[in-house]
């Protein structure tokens, strides 16, 4: 291997590199390859698209600050690296690099990472820390470990089989009692938007979000462009302020929610974002999540994204994974960083 040269990304590099690299080695590689593009100096007006619940904000917003470097061997691109800002999780910069197989273990990745860190020193946000996504026991995971990046989070995609959990009984067991607590809710609901935004913020304290105004929560999780097409909520049992002999005049507060996302094929399990009111005590949060998951997965399978930081959901799903009533789809995703 001759001495490599390094330069900024140019149009057409993606074609040359994809031909050399072949198919992405992991799902994360396929996502991050889309981030390779010419350098950008900052955000334009109008607000970026920071991605949705399935990508953790890895999507590069239009006009966001980005630096992309290409390594060439005798004029042929063989490796690339990118670092960029997003608004959804602003306390670290996303970074990714990929090196052709026949150029690995030769210091190319380490050189590119050093160059990315130098570029990061000039990020407009003042943020210097990096993060990326890898799969366990892959070359990317080994490189991240050698580079000193620590695990920040583990995420799994879980398919919950029909009937994995026993159906709950609400109140006196009547249809009226169930209807009072389990309700379909429009995805444009202000009440739903509020609890979804606060839940996402709560379970991402390990990588804090920026401000999540209602419009942002709607765009990321609940409007048509996010793929959301329905929501079910579990409410507290309604009670009257005037005693048990007087009918309640208000609905109970939301305890848990499940937002479903459209699928290309009707026979595929439904993707669901399942969460709870963050202020619930731990035991109540687990009970609310269990009851709602039992309902939505009673007859048909559902697919959930399960982060270790989702404590209540983990408490419900881990036992049914152990009992083979749910299964992990594909490989785990690790978020690693400074």
UniProtKB/TrEMBL annotation:
Where along the sequence do coiled-coil regions lie? none
Q: Which domain of life is it from?
A: Bacteria
Gene3D superfamilies, sorted? 3.40.630.30
Q: Which GO terms describe its molecular function?
A: acyltransferase activity, transferring groups other than amino-acyl groups
Question: What protein name applies here?
Answer: GNAT family N-acetyltransferase
- Region Disordered: what ranges? 35-63
- Name all N-acetyltransferase domain ranges: 4-172
Q: Which CDD domains does the entry mention? A: NAT_SF
